[in-house]
Amino acid sequence: MYPRPIPEDARIQRALYLGGVALVVILWLLPLLAVMLTSIRSNEELMAGNYWGWPQKFSLIENYKAVFEQTAMLRFFLNSLLITIPSVIGVLILSTLTGFVLSRYPFRGSNLIFALFVGGNFLPAQIMMIPVRDLMVRLGLYDTVYALIIFHIAFQTGFATLFMRNFIAALPGELFQAARAEGASPFQTLRHVVVPLVRPALAALAILTFTFVWNDYFWAIVLTQSDAVKPVTAGLNNLRGEWTSAWNIVSAATIFVALPPVVMFFMMQKHFVAGLTMGAVKG
Amino acid sequence: MTTKLAALSTTRRRFLKGTGAALAASATGGLCLPALAQAQEITIISNLGNAQQREILQRLATEFEAKSGAKVVINNMDHEAHKTAIRSYLVVGAPDICFWFSGNRMKAFVAKGLFDDISDLFARENYKSVLGATTSAVTVGDKQYGLPMGGILWGLFYRKDVFAQHNWTPPKDWKEFLAFGEAAKSANLVPISMGTKELWPAGGWFDHMNLRINGLDKHIALMDGKVQYTDPMLTPVFDKWNDLLKAGFFSPSHSSFGWEQAGAALAQKKAAMMDLGGFVRSAFPEADLPQLAYAPFPEIVPGVARYEDFSVNSIHVPANAKNRQGARDFLAYFYKPENLGAFLAAEGAIPPRNDCPPSHDPLVNAAVEELKKVVATSQYYDRDTDPDMAQEGMTALQEFMVKPDRRDQILGRLEKTRKRIFG
Amino acid sequence: MSRLWRRNRHWVTPALFLLPGLILFGTVILAASIETVWISLHDWDGIGAKTWVGLANYIELADDPQFYVSLKNNVIWLLIFMLAPPIGLALALIVNQQIRGMRILKSLFFVPLVLATVTVGVVFGWVYDPNFGLLQLLFGAFGGTAPALLSDETFVTFAVAAAGLWPQIAFCMILFLAGLNSLNDDLIAAGRVDGARGWRMLRHVVLPQLSQVGFIAIAVTVIGALRSFDMIAVMTSGGPYGSCTVLAYQMYQESIFSYRFGYGAAIATVLFVIMIVFIAWYLNGLIKAERSNA
């Protein structure tokens, strides 16, 4: 362990250390706390200029209720789920396949293909705006969730392939030699050797992909227009335009949008660091 | 250009007639909803920042659904985001009805064949008789491509109680304006509230000074790319503007917020005046609305006739709409005088029809009165010139407001852009 | 048939595994990127027909002051973002203690990473607001007036990049935390025996073991910096007067606001070229690391 662990018996030292870190966390999250505070503030108070003081009256319920009742955020929220979940599943499947092949079946040109995946993923996505939009129009998918799902799967597969390839490459080679010695087909190897071992990597990848797709704003505005398919980020920005002076409502909606990735992250945090350790770091 | 100017000035006159008139035998008569409007869908993309207007539109849609059996789906977009989104959706995935701006900004899409010719609807509902010359705002070569919506008369807004408290009267000419600014500053108020984050308010201020100094013909020539941005006629405009900047007339750090926040500063008595349209009312709490008042932009060069920016919004049927008949039926319902009147009253805009119910809003009535004194009108910087030019131009004007010393460099750049666009 | 299958399955199955990802990625991402280069050789308003203009867009770009503003700002973003790896490492070191309750604090540090850019934009918009922002509150406490960062051409890029830095630090922190978790304990113990402590231990024993993860952190950070778009779109729209645009944003602006898709595509292509230089560096590093591992 580095830094050297504070000894278990130095209780006071440990408590002080924890307190110090907690203070840093508060400073670190101060801007976010301010937004949370605003989300429970009443409109009158904001109009009166009380932006930072402690709220005299808590309007938590009213504000969040307003978000659900007076805006279409709930629908945008469901749209986001409809877009994000299939995208994450698609990315996990495709990248396990590509990562497996690229790490364990070297062939002439495999490095080039790998380089294309990595390189393509590093491109600023904005430069593909016009061609991608035209493609979706030609496929008749413009302004449907499928347009976003297909694009996100395609784009995230680049990064995910890099991640999975590194992870699978770091698995002990003996396992694969043993599988080959037993005459296992590539499919059997995938099923019985790779899949059971990559779970932590998949967990980490799932969180990252979920976050990227859920938080996407650019493609949401390029590929959709109707409320029936618009995801929550585009909805939030619309809300900012429509409720310009109702900052408490905008804040409440902002917190609402941030919730799923945060919850997902907290739930899977343990797997996340473990998966990342093995996937990104050891590769 | 002369035809356009004539059209514009008549447009204005028709507006007056329209709003002045009482309900007066709404000649629209029995609006027939064809029976074929069954179980079909009509999609609308709106760009309404005003919650009340969104509610009214929704209410009208629901009423229409009940009457016709059609289903009406409204997608509202953020006003600024919509300006960019419309370029995509008119080509792919067009709704059946969309909101936009009449005049040049409409013509750009008409030229590309993206707006449907709705002359048939005009004939069917006999709109020309109630719109009169306003029809020209949506007409290209004898055909109508949209319905004119509310008109916005631009000018200076202020709070009556603040002015009364300091014994001020709205400045009439440049000398008074400068004196007023000094008085406001010594009363710890920002003389002119402005938020240029979305750029266009800077364009509007330029319009108003240029109209007062060079008049409408020269202004429109500039908008049409026929006058160079380095032309000496603009020197007094920027000189005088520079004086205001040097004297600290505008909100400090105005480029970091939009008009809403600037409007709030006016409402909160932190600023004395603001250059905007009647929609400034949405920045005011309901109780403070009676305090809000309008004053024309002060005269600068004596003898220049009174020209103003008067923008007319519009509503259209995209050429690629799936349900163009349904769109017409809904528009006919929406455009009934009482419905249109209610919708426009919510934003304080001036109705284009002469048979809308008279407004209860003193600001609207004041604007109507003011319009009578206006000789002719332009629309607004970003509605009168090429969109590409408008983008560069408004950015440059914002820069001038922050860095007036860079004037020559800025104007040189604008001239380069003008040459590229207009040749 | 079956023999044919058995003889070939060692390559057919992997090929089949590879194909879906490859086809999707190839047709959507790679083809679109190349098409952008093609569009950059045209004059196109995004609606009508394209007119071939050869290199005219690039020639105009070379003479466009805005282009150099964007380029300079991209460099500023890059420099500011380079703070993310060291700060992320520092935070990772701080929280890398097994104390009850530390896990929840760790997770709280990661929160900015999972926030949407729109959210971060809203949050920092309030920090910077000259009238009631957190910054003004801070300055006000000392009787000063905070500069209006978002409307000052000198500071605006720094301010926006600083907002972008927030989640980026969290990202680097996670990577380094993962790296610290997989340190070789024997080496650390050996270092301790040799009397290495604190800074020297970090410098000579720990950092060398973190070189791999450091490489990834830097790579991710460079991409993040060059890709910056959302934060600018949400916070300033490139303003004041275009002084905080970066290439990605200018491209968007020319295409969408000024309807010059060919010109926008030319800017995108320049960004593309810059990226390719970086990607080549990255891949080179990746392959080298792999060889030394093997």
UniProtKB/TrEMBL annotation, chain A:
Membrane topology recorded in Swiss-Prot or TrEMBL: Multi-pass membrane protein
GO cellular component labels: plasma membrane
Main location: membrane
Summary of the function given for this chain in its UniProt record: Part of the ABC transporter complex UgpBAEC involved in sn-glycerol-3-phosphate (G3P) import. Probably responsible for the translocation of the substrate across the membrane.
CDD domains associated with the record: TM_PBP2 (cd06261)
Family: Belongs to the binding-protein-dependent transport system permease family.
Recorded name of the encoding gene: ugpE
Segments forming domain ABC transmembrane type-1: 77-268
Transmembrane regions: 15-37, 76-100, 112-132, 144-164, 193-214, 246-268
Domain of life: Bacteria
Pfam families: BPD_transp_1
UniProt-recorded name of the protein: sn-glycerol-3-phosphate transport system permease protein UgpE
Localization per Swiss-Prot or TrEMBL: Cell inner membrane; Cell membrane
Keywords on record: Cell inner membrane, Cell membrane, Membrane, Transmembrane, Transmembrane helix, Transport
Gene3D superfamilies in the cross-refs: MetI-like
GO biological process, one term: transmembrane transport
Subunit structure of this chain's protein: The complex is composed of two ATP-binding proteins (UgpC), two transmembrane proteins (UgpA and UgpE) and a solute-binding protein (UgpB).
TrEMBL record, chain B:
Main localization category: periplasm
Cited InterPro entries: Bact_solute-bd_prot1 (IPR050490), SBP (IPR006059), TAT_signal (IPR006311), TAT_signal_bac_arc (IPR019546)
Localization, UniProt: Periplasm
Keywords: Periplasm, Signal
Highest taxon of source: Bacteria
Classification via Pfam families: SBP_bac_1 (PF01547)
GO CC terms in record: periplasmic space
Signal peptide: 1-37
Family: Belongs to the bacterial solute-binding protein 1 family.
Annotated protein name in UniProt: Carbohydrate ABC transporter substrate-binding protein
Automatic annotation (TrEMBL), chain C:
Cell compartment(s), UniProt: Cell membrane
Keywords: Cell membrane, Membrane, Transmembrane, Transmembrane helix, Transport
Official protein name in the record: Sugar ABC transporter permease
One Pfam family it belongs to: BPD_transp_1
Signal peptide as annotated in the record: none
Membrane topology: Multi-pass membrane protein
CC per GO annotation: plasma membrane
Membrane-spanning segments: 75-95, 107-128, 155-180, 201-225, 261-283
Gene3D superfamilies xref list: MetI-like (1.10.3720.10)
Keyword rRNA processing: no
GO terms of biological process kind: transmembrane transport
Residues in ABC transmembrane type-1 domain copies: 70-284
Family membership: Belongs to the binding-protein-dependent transport system permease family.
